[in-house]
Amino acid sequence: MDASEFFTISFDPPSTAQLDEYHDLAVLIGTEKVVARTSRGYYNEPVFYDEPRVPEKRLDVAELQRLLETSRDERDRELAKKLNGLELTERLTTGSLRFWKEHVRGKEAKAALTNLADESVFLAPPTADIPGQAAPDENTQQQITRRAERYLDEAVPMLPDFSADATTVKYEQSYPHERDAWKAAPPNRVLIQTVNERATLLYRNGHEQRIVEKEKQVGKHIAVRNDLNYKGIFGPILGFVLEDVRRGNSKLIWARWERTQQGTLAVFRYSVHSENPKYGVTYCCLVGGHVFQALPEHHGELGIAPDTGAILRITVESEPGWIRETDLSPLRPVLVSNMMVEYGPVGIGGHPFICPRQSIVITRERTVRYIDFWGFNFAVYGPYQTLMNDTAYTNYHKFGSESRILAGFEVIPDGKTP
Fold it and tell me: How many domains, the chain?
């Protein structure tokens, strides 16, 4: 009879920084006629929670620029260590990053500065980049968003078939290798550059295809798992967002004007709250090799050229949420999945088109660790790990051949090729 009745109780253990922290466990029932047979205790581990990153210092872009100005003579590793301990409160723009990378000496310092800038792309720009002009009235805002919709309907389908070079720099946290490391969070959240990957991106009949040409290991660090593949940056992702914001309880509201190298953009903030949104997140792999897929609510910003409707910048931020595995255990495989794409004019076949110039993808995911105890191999969930890809798109070329007639040649009847 006792075996026919059972219960399951779940609870969140308290956060701990100690490995194998033992806790007594008891289930009390308000009657003497029933006895609960259960475990008498459990071991708490730091890995059950994600440890937040605590930077040594938070600073704005002006403070960062002053720091870089006074640190030009520092050694490469010393400056890199200083930059790795920082967190920006404003976005370091692409132009500012390019300027300071030319003035900072050392490979490690340049990588740390790029990492710092990439993590700031989802923040608002410095006040100096926000014009003081008033927000447009509601009618003008609607005109701008309608131009953006028309741009997607008319301009994006006119893209020719082409190829482009996609150069990706991959970053990830240092990965612990000790046997018990799956129980503990990594000692720090500093991202290190692991792999440079060059690929050819093909665009044919509105579809993207990525062909990896060469992968190069950088330094002593080897990428353990950095598979941030994504699709749709040449138009579909823009259409998905605009379609999602028109459904359910989603919203699209005015944010600000923003001064950029391509002119002043009209920036709108959006949030998607609807069933079955078009934007999706895929994560591989769960324990057992299963693939996690989610259609999460998401939010972000759209930077639109107000006169043409061209979308020149988009951010997408999401928190995919919880799932239950086959044994009903709750699991959150992906804490955050964020993406930013910047667009600009490029020449393809002698004509200007708006295409991606840079994209940044950042995720924080559960790792899967394989451990060996007493001759048995187990796959268990380890600590969360941050992955980041920074991709630059260059060398756009149109598919097909081009020919022209050259004048000035004399045609010789029955001529033979020498």
Answer: 2
